[in-house]
Write a structure and sequence with these properties.
By secondary structure, the protein is an alpha/beta fold. It contains 6 helices and 6 strands. Bound molecules: magnesium ion.
Length: 157
């Protein structure tokens, strides 16, 4: 078993269907935030993400946001989406995953980690013993690119 090999790959989180999660044997989903649910540090989820969350919840899955980012970034974001959360989770270490899963009584084998980063989400999910869904990072890893783009846009206008 490779610790850096996801079990499943999708372009976007919204491409993952309840059926895919059921087939993987997942009941609890641990969701990365930055570049998985929104651009890095952004409070605005990607298009379709709030609808995807309510659809997946309706299908009976438990969802928790798990992020290495700060309380200031994650708390309002998760509350806005109506999800429990763990911030400063120290992925790939198992402690954040344990904390996220502890209230549900669901085993790591019945847990799916969904995220865009190999060395945090995939490695962490594999160490924890869960199924891993890797998505394509939907934005740059920092705000730098966005800031540069804004400056260029201003210049053009
Ligand atoms: Mg990420």
């Amino acid at each position: 078993m490779s610790l850096l090999k996801p079990d499943y790959r999708f372009d976007k989180i919204t491409d993952i269907k309840a059926e895919d999660l059921k087939k993987a044997g997942a009941k609890l989903l641990l969701l990365d935030a930055d570049n998985t649910l929104s651009f890095h540090g952004s409070q605005t989820p990607f298009p379709g993400v709030p609808e995807w969350i309510s659809e997946i919840k309706k299908s009976g899955f438990e969802l928790v946001i798990i992020s290495n980012n700060s309380e200031r970034r994650i708390k309002p974001f998760a509350e806005n989406l109506g999800l429990p959360f763990v911030y400063e989770s120290a992925k790939p270490l198992p402690k954040g995953f344990k904390k996220a899963a502890e209230n549900f009584g669901i085993s790591p084998k019945e847990t799916a980690v969904i995220g865009d980063q190999l060395f945090t989400d995939v490695l962490g999910g594999k160490i924890f013993g869960s199924k891993v869904f890797l998505t394509e990072p939907l934005g740059p890893e920092t705000d730098f690119f966005i800031k540069v783009k804004r400056k260029i846009e201003k210049f053009i206008r």
